[in-house]
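[agent] plan:
  1. take the single chain provided in the ticket
  2. run structure prediction with default settings
  3. attach structure tokens to the ticket
  4. add a short note for the reviewer (M.T.)
[agent] executing step 1
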Amino acid sequence: MFRKLPLVSLFALMAQAQVHVPQVGSIRCVDGSVRPVYGVPASFVLGKPLLFSATSSSFSEAGGIVATSGAVHLLNVDGKPIGEFATAETRPLVNINSDVSSATAWLPETNSLLYWDGSSFQQVVLPSPLSGRVTGLRRDGGRAVLLVFENGGVSETAISLSSGNTLSEVLLPGVNGPAFREGEFILFPSETGLEIEGPEGRRSLAVAAASDLSIERLSTHWLHLSSAASGHHWALHITNGTLQLLELPAVPRAEIAK
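[agent] step 2 finished; step 3 output follows
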């Protein structure tokens, strides 16, 4: 893990109007706000909130999908609204991994999926309840692929977006915790840290409070790991089999209190 480096030089750059500070992506913070992440690896800084009181979020280089109390929002790359779906669901699970057409959401209370058809959100209700808890999802053409955690095991279940019917269900051997997929890698917490299962086998990262770990997409190839209990959070970069784990700055206490 990289140590935090002084941010003085980064803030100096931000103060100069003619200098553009790169935006890595956006995250949902412990206070529920959704904030952009600026800077370069080992010198990240959080920007002002785009939204407040989010319950889940996911971002790519093309946009984001965010669940708040009462609605699921689709945003463009600048954080501006593209579409919205009103819902009374309290804990939707959302994901976007490429352009906005990949935006999907799982609504557990109504046993249904949301997907973006290019102009609005479409909802498809599954004909029968899923057995287990959905911890990850992604869109793959005309189907949604869900990671379902049950009795210590994880299965990858493909659902038709036109009918809601189950197309396939595959048990993932050796994956025994609430899982998240990033490309060819499956991530899940264990007693010792974060387990990462990939084409070349399994690797483990020592992450504090792993049992309390939440994983959401920060941007393309970037994941946001967070622990509500400890207040710590990290950015994990996964590309070409290379892992880079960086601690993110905390939200200022004065802002959390507002």
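[agent] step 4 note for reviewer: Residues 217 and 223 are 5 Å apart (CA to CA).
[agent] ticket updated
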